[in-house]
Amino acid sequence: VQLQASGGGLVLPGGSLTLSCAASGFTFSDYWMNWIRQAPGKRLEWVSNISNGGRTTYSKDTVKGRLTISRDNAKNTLYLQMNGLKPEDTAVYYCARGAPAGGMDVWGKGTQVTVSS
After folding, report:
1. How far apart are CA 23 and CA 107, in angstroms?
2. Is-contact 16 85, C-beta < 8 A?
3. In CA terms, which of 13, 34, 48, 50 is 20 to 30 Å from 72?
4. Measured at the alpha carbon of residue 99, what is the angle toward residues 93 and 105, in degrees to the nearest 5?
5. Contact (CB, 8 A) for 10 and 67
6. 3-state secondary structure 25-83
7. DSSP string for residues in 81-95
8. φ/ψ (deg, to 5) at 88
């Protein structure tokens, strides 16, 4: 069971990035999926999640309208489209599998997003 996030980088304020998370070793379409981030010196912060079929999403209020979660079950891939990026979005972004009983039970290695001029 593995998750691998990619797509991070350095971007100017107001810029865009798309993060991807490739899943393997499990039936991707059976699970809710999450994006979580950790800014320097701060705690982990849940960002967004998406239902197993992709029809239902939830996001942290501060990212609504700017960061959009989606998934392609045929490709076993989770995405985070990031628009209108702000310096406060700077963080390591992780994808994580939703556990059936709640919480998250499988985490990928993170990808660094830095928003700076």
Report:
1. 10
2. yes
3. 13
4. 55
5. no
6. CCCHHHCCEEEEEECCCCCEEEEEEECCCCCCEEECHHHCCCEEEEEECCCCEEEEEEC
7. EE-S--GGG-EEEEE
8. -70, -5
Decide: residue 110, CB within 10 A, 0-12 exposed, 13-18 middle, 19+ buried. middle
**Does the CA dihedral 94-99-102-106 come out positive or negative?**
negative
Determine whether 24 is exposed, middle or buried from the number of CB atoms within 10 Å of its CB (0-12, 13-18, 19+). exposed
Which residues does 94 contact at the CB level (< 8 Å), separation at least 6? 5, 35, 36, 37, 38, 44, 107, 108, 109, 110
Interatomic CA distance for residues 38 and 94, integer angstroms: 8
Q: Which pLDDT tens digit goes with each residue over 103-114?
A: 899 999 999 999
Q: CA-CA distance, 8 to 93, in Å (whole number)?
A: 8
CA 1 vs CA 4, 16, 25, 26, 40: distances in Å:
10, 30, 4, 6, 28
> What confidence tens digit (pLDDT) does each residue in 56-91 have?
999 999 999 999 999 999 999 999 999 999 999 999
Alpha-carbon distance 83 to 68, whole Å?
Answer: 8
